Amino acid sequence: MMNNVTGFNCVECARSFSVGEIEYVCPACNGNLDTLYDYERVGEQLSKATLAADRNFTIWRYRALLPIEDSSLAPPLTVGWTPIYDCPRLAGEFGVKQLLIKDDGRNPTASFKDRPSALAVVKAREAGARVITTASSGNAGSALAGMCASVGMESVIFAPTYAPRAKIAQLQIYGSKVVLVEGSYDEAFDLCLEAGRRYGWYQRSTGYNPFMAEGKKTAALEIGEQLNWEVPDKVFVGVGDGNIIGGLWKGFNDLHALGLIDRLPQLIGVQAEGASAVVDAANGDGVVRAAPSQTVADSINVGRPRDATRAIRAIRDSGGRGVKVSDEEIITAIGRLASSTGVFAEPAGAAPYAGFVKLCESGAIDRDERALLMLTGNGLKDVESARRGSNEPFHIKPDIAELDKIPNWFVEG
Q1: Of 19, 147, 164, 177, whose CB neighbour count within 10 A is largest?
Q2: 84-108+212-388 belongs to CATH 3.40.718.10
Q3: Residue boundaries of the structural domains of the chain
Q4: How many separate helices (H) and strands (E) can be counted in the chain?
Q5: Burial status of residue 89 (CB atoms within 10 A of its CB: 0-12, 13-18, 19 or more)
């Protein structure tokens, strides 16, 4: 029994399955699965009062809404309860009532992906697995490697060779076995699935393991609680495979089903122009058309999104929309966000801000609306991309007279 889980529904063919009947995807059509809960039982264990009394400020404070049997198997690292910052200067600049930032770069391995990876470790340990594997453009892999290192488990990570060096370094320093694939993320994903089946490894990969969306939904649960159950009007989310935005929508719906929030936010999915299959489908006819992908935002550089159906559902059912931004807009967003708020985001993490700016400039956000940006990774994950949008430093000799020679280099005020 997985605590309060009652079963699973396939998001593609709508077939239902009981607990213990499936391992990863729908056996009939290979579709992804939604995890179902007994909300009456959950409500007996989780309420505003129980949360107010709970001093465990991690994702495990929501264990009644997670598909786990034994929370003592959780990694010891502090995952979740990342800060939300109010940004009144930016809100005033763009003419909105409030702009909030949830900075998931504050997680142990500096990315949002610690949430599902921590849950994957619990599920693997419950299953008695020795090795966990995942496909990753960097963050999912480094998150899994860090979580595994904290409990002494082995991990095998498949990543494309173009993944940022800082992310590969994380994999190596955590002791993971790293397989760099000379191809796309999608090709690394396929190889990872094949290897997991052949060698019997526990599979963490997004858009395949049904529990990864459950780990990702914890950010939505935190947003509701941290904002005193008054959710924003719009939540901006970077989209790659589609699992994050789908997970967030699941989390907000969980809160609504429990009566903890009285309305749902609109979800705005943001993708790079060079990897926009989900946004194109959500804003168009709903059909996902896979295509080669190319963007500086490696974490959302996905040409064949594995959880597109849930992503499109999240955007459409919430009354939201998709937004495409250029790589130039993403690079500009990194520096503009950092210099305005002090929060340093990697390209995929800054993409929601680029999407927010674009919608504001088009007049698509009302002055009385509250918006939240979901920042998914720290800028130190990809320093080279950040440097592309920053000022060059001055190089001088150690002499104050050298500063005097630099025209207009510093203005007080």
Answers
A1: 147
A2: no
A3: 84-108+212-388
A4: 16, 13
A5: exposed
